[in-house]
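Box 4.2: Ligand-aware structure prediction
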Amino acid sequence: MRVFIAGVDGYLGWTLSQYLAARGHEVSGCDIFMRRDWVAELGSQSATPIRRMTERLEAFRENFKTNLQFRRGDLRDYNFVLNCFRSFRPEAVVHFGEMPSAPYSMMDVQHAVFTQTNNLVGTLNIVYAMKECCPKAHLVKLGTMGEYGTPNVDIPEGFFTIEYRGRKETLPFPRQAGSWYHQTKVHDSHNVMFACKVWGLRSTDIMQGVVFGTRIDEMGEDERLLTRFDFDQCFGTAVNRFCAEAAVGHSLTLFGKGRQKRGFLPLRDSMQCITLAVNNPPREGEYRVFNQFEEVYSLTELAEKVKRVGNTLGLKVEIRNLENPRKEMEEHYYNPDHQHLLDLGYKPTHDIEREMEIMLKDLVKYSSRIEARIEALIPDIHWDGSRKKVSFIQ
Ligand code: USQ
């Protein structure tokens, strides 16, 4: 199948291009390298030494015996998006091309406005360009489990049936996002659902949990194929940060009580699930929602797993609680459904300690790159817009 990846230079995009090429798909993608700039803006860098796109494309060709058709450009430029689709004629479009960080969006008005315009305009341009050039193609849109928030009831996959004043209807489940960034995903979901309704586009909206991992098997030993791996306060996500911290002997940073629960999944599972969605498109006009994660864990549980695995590798790992820079519930009910992908054949990697072992070994190798930006580990962006490094509370 011809698959177009928006955001192909990113953590997920670069990995997916390889996962798909290894399975015989024809891949094209675009990027404007903003993620590289945002991480630099925060004074950080990828722990893995990622290469320039020209070198990446060369390595791709050598390893997969096919070209990744790359275009540099901005999704906010409608003509650029239109030209990408006109020349490649995608059968599926995977949309990873958004600003993905909650803290980055909460920094100040400029970052909030940038996040909302960048994410919403890019998505609107994509749905319009699909309507114009490839209305039968399938849009796989990356949303987030964070759209739902942490309600005190079970979370269905997108929709639920309710009875109100004697009448019954199936409706979108309420969204209660916890950052300006997470709000963009809510707005995108509504926009994509509307495009499916009025134009008959087909889309899968992926409510993905927090991804962790340094690699997939397809990357082999070729360092040029490695994907980026961020550990800073904005672009580093929980388990990735814990592993980076363990690799350099920094204490693991649990925010607040550390009893927050989220759905998590290894990078290789994320690839497996997105590919299942690509290979099994919805019907014309259908908008469907997948909750995508391996299992729900509390942050403390995961920090303890990283500690256990680190110890077996001879690393000294300490877990400490920090003041929580975010406004979020630290103790709450959390029970989201995740059946749709299992029904399509998703085989979860249940051995996540093995995954952590692979990550720690990779990261120890690049520990000097983490040590060089060690300051980036302690957050200073607060949800009230203030900037002050948080302190350890225990
Ligand atoms: N956390 C810590 N210590 C850390 C980092 C995070 O305790 O060092 C806690 C946070 O307070 C939060 C939880 O871990 O309760 C998750 O935080 P995160 O930074 O790993 O993830 P989040 O901000 O929710 O966002 C990430 C991605 C985002 C994606 C989302 C999926 O950046 O793009 O949408 O995960 S989900 O969390 O399911 O909404």
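In the box above, the bound molecule is sulfoquinovose-uridine-C1,5'-diphosphate. Residues 100-102, 144-146, 208-210, 237-238, 241, 253-255, 258, 260, 262-263, 299, 326, 328 surround sulfoquinovose-uridine-C1,5'-diphosphate (CB under 6 Å).
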